Amino acid sequence: MDKLANRLREDAATIDAEISAQLDSRIQASLNAIEPETARRHRVPGRRPVSFWLASSLTGVAAALAVIAILNVVDTNGPADVSRTVADTTVQPIELPAIDLDVEAAMLTGPLAQELEDLQADLKKAEEVVRGDVRIDF
């Protein structure tokens, strides 16, 4: 890494460039406007006012009371049905409609390796036809 740093310094020294006064002043202003990283980390955040704490607490309490009120008003059990018996709770199976499928076994005309080569050749021909139609030249 030292060789690279030395090489970069040597290359920078050989560059003959003049900096205008305006550019130099802008660079100096940018450098002076930067504050060190450690100074930004050690800043103490300002205290929030008591009204902020009070408002957030009241909002939380109001939300909790609203949820409790809604849960108490809504009847989750529904109306009581006295005539209900255990026999009414049995589950009936669902019948699915039958689907007629025409299934045929795949008939291979040759070994799998030959079928794969034929498929690759067909794909290559299709690719050539598409390229000819679209005519994409990069």
Concise synopsis of the structure shown:
With 138 residues, this protein is an all-alpha fold.
Describe what you observe in this structure.
With 138 residues, the chain is an all-alpha fold. It is flat and about 85 Å long. Among the domains are: 40 residues; 32 residues. It has five helices and no strands. The protein starts with a helix and ends with a helix.
Helix and strand layout, with pairings?
Elements: H1 2-14, H2 21-33, H3 37-41, H4 50-73, H5 112-134
Key phrases:
mainly alpha; 5 helices; flat
Structural class: mainly alpha
Q: Helix count, per DSSP?
A: 5
Oligomer: single chain
Mean pLDDT: 77
**Span from first to last CA?**
40 Å
Strand content: under 5%
